[in-house]
Amino acid sequence: MSTNLSTLLLRFSEPETLKMAKLGRELRAKGIDVIDLSLGEPDFDTPQHIKDAAIKAINDNWSHYTPVAGFADLKEAVCTKLKRDNHLDYQPENIITSTGAKQSLANAILALVDEGDEVIIPTPYWVTYSELVKIARGHVVEIRTTVENHFKITPQQLEAAITSNTRVFMFSSPCNPSGAVYTKDELAALVKIFEKHPKITILSDEIYEYINFIGQHESIAQFPSIKERVVVINGLSKGFAMTGWRLGYIAANTDIVKACEKLQGQFTSGTCSITQKAAVAALTGDLAPSRAMTAEFARRREKTLALVKSIPGFKCFEPQGAFYVFPDVSAYYGKKNGTETIANAADLSMFLLNTAHVSSVMGDAFGEPNCIRFSFANSMENIEKAWARIKDALATLQ
Fold first, then answer.
1. Hey, which bits of the chain come out as E strands?
2. Residues with Cβ < 8 Å from 110, sequence gap 6 or more?
3. Hey, which of 32, 110, 195, 210 has its CA 20 to 30 A from 248?
């Protein structure tokens, strides 16, 4: 049977992160011990006080449809968090909550990008950024970064990429997949460029805010000259180990928030009532569990970096945030294992899955074809076992 499907589906790809996780599960179903270093998910349980708030919400019968933009107390909680952690002043009318930060990003892109509009995205970037722009019929303009420059763009690169068609600049700090974190001075230098181009909206993905190994998180929304043009994207999945709860939010000017609310009203309406009540507890409660998770990720980062440095040919930036390493693996291109030749990062990622039984994500998906992303959101035991397997497998390539 042949079904005529929309040509929309031809404009974008399945996320490689989800594809690799699916391949890993298929091998696991065959009885193969696959260690998953592909997905970006904390291997911690949601903190107890957040779960207690959800249980209370169930018992208090918060079981009905929710306002599209979110409960009033949740929007107030987001404002409280932004003031406490980021020194940003927002009002509830500047906030919309969604079913995950991915939906928040989709809302913002669909609200801001028309056919042919250019969206500047520094590489490497999270896999969904470019695909959302394609769905909106926009044009992705990549700014290439390097390991040597700590995977950050310069003001000169930004200025050179801007044209009369530039509508949006989108980036993350801390960055998935590179782990790069922009300092206040680095952001200030970019802001000077944005001040000269008032038609550009800046999407700032800050979902990894709490997983920062170098100090205070800095938001580009802190600069008054461009604050009205900044859309802060954040959520609960990474910093609170709430991936399955699905709660993201936007802080922006009211025009953008109303546009996102209009879109969301036709797609999903308001997000889960129980999740929203749990989110209030997360955003206004004790951050000790989040800090403990970050401390553990810091320990795993040090172990992972030591293991990666023992791999001949891997060139690796030391991540400043998030929970990934993103080494350049191009030294292995052209090497063989019997009849199998490694031509690119995708080949090497599949080789490691099938030979070392370790799942990863090839850098092509992130706009950096010479790199592979490995997560360290896994137990220390699994991290050590995985990198021992990787080292042994790579040693067979000549």
1. 35-36, 95-98, 118-122, 139-143, 166-172, 201-205, 230-235, 248-251, 324-325, 336-337, 340-341, 358-359, 361-362, 372-375
2. 132, 135, 136, 263
3. 195
Q: Tokens in use for 36?
A: 């998953």
Q: Is 147 exposed, middle or buried (0-12, 13-18, 19+ CB in 10 A)?
A: middle
What's the confidence (pLDDT) of residue 15? 67
Distance CA 185, CA 179 (A): 18
d(CA 96, CA 258): 8
124: nearest Cα among 374, 370, 367? 367
Residue from 205, 172, 290, 175 nearest 239 by CA? 290
Amino acid code (one letter) for 101: A
Question: pLDDT tens digits, residue range 173-197?
Answer: 999 999 999 999 999 999 999 999 9
Phi then psi for 179, rounded to 5 degrees? 85, 10
Q: Please state whether the peptide bond connecting residue 174 to the residue before it is cis, i.e. omega within 30 degrees of 0.
A: yes
- 125 CB burial (10 A radius; 0-12, 13-18, 19+): buried
Q: Identify the pLDDT of residue 130.
A: 95
